[in-house]
Design a protein that fits this description.
The chain is mainly alpha-helical and 201 residues long. It has one domain. It is 87% helix and 0% strand. α1 runs parallel beside α5, α3 packs antiparallel against α5 and α5 runs antiparallel to α6. The chain is globular, with a radius of gyration of 18 Å. The two termini are 23 Å apart.
């Protein structure tokens, strides 16, 4: 698995600096919307890795190499977890330093919630990428995300609660619990999706 991760980082090294700068820039802006954009940027690395894999036909080469399905699938999740946690930590440190200088309130709780949401979005996306090529998976993932966001918004509206306030004020332990559960289910779903794509191919 280390070799697979090293391969992804070599391929994506040109994007790492850009993402780090973009995430820090969006995190230090004083509004929640920019923090959301920064967190979504952190989820981009696995997506970019799939794009390079499809263009280079890496899947065919990987099938001839001694990598198990577990190694191939889990390495992409580890890449996503590392990118989200590392880039968010960089952005949060940048926000903390700047806000201390300006006397603003650090948005630590909001950042923590956004990280958990980003991990859930990643868990939703990766099985689709393992099942389809990049073009098809992008469309399917967009439909699924729209469905989930619409459902959440509808439930919150029926409850008469403000969505943003409700999400941020929920007990803090709820978010990592949901993120861990989503990723645990997602890993096994991605393994099944990868095997299905291999059989089809």
């Amino acid at each position: 698995m280390k070799a697979l991760l090293r391969k992804d980082f070599y391929v994506l090294k040109k994007q790492l600096g850009f993402l780090a700068v973009a995430i820090v820039a969006f995190y230090i802006l004083p509004n929640v919307g920019s923090n959301v954009v920064a967190t979504l940027y952190a989820v981009m690395l696995p997506t970019s890795a799939f794009t390079y894999d499809d263009h280079s036909r890496w899947g065919e080469l990987a099938a001839m190499m001694p990598y198990s399905t577990w190694d191939i699938v889990l390495s992409r999740y580890v890449l996503g977890w590392l990118s989200v946690l590392t880039f968010t930590a960089i952005g949060a440190c940048g926000q903390l330093v700047l806000y201390r200088v300006l006397g603003e309130t650090f948005r630590g709780r909001e950042i923590f919630v956004l990280v958990c949401i980003a991990l859930c979005l990643m868990a939703l996306s990766l099985p689709v990428y393992f099942r389809y090529d990049v073009e098809k998976s992008r469309f399917v993932r967009l439909l699924v995300v729209m469905l989930i966001c619409g459902t959440i918004g509808g439930v919150m509206a029926l409850m008469g609660a403000d969505t943003e306030e409700s999400l941020v004020r929920a007990p803090l332990w709820v978010y990592p619990l949901i993120a861990v559960a989503c990723n645990a289910v997602s890993v096994f779903a991605a393994m099944a999706a990868y095997r299905a794509r291999r059989r089809k191919g």
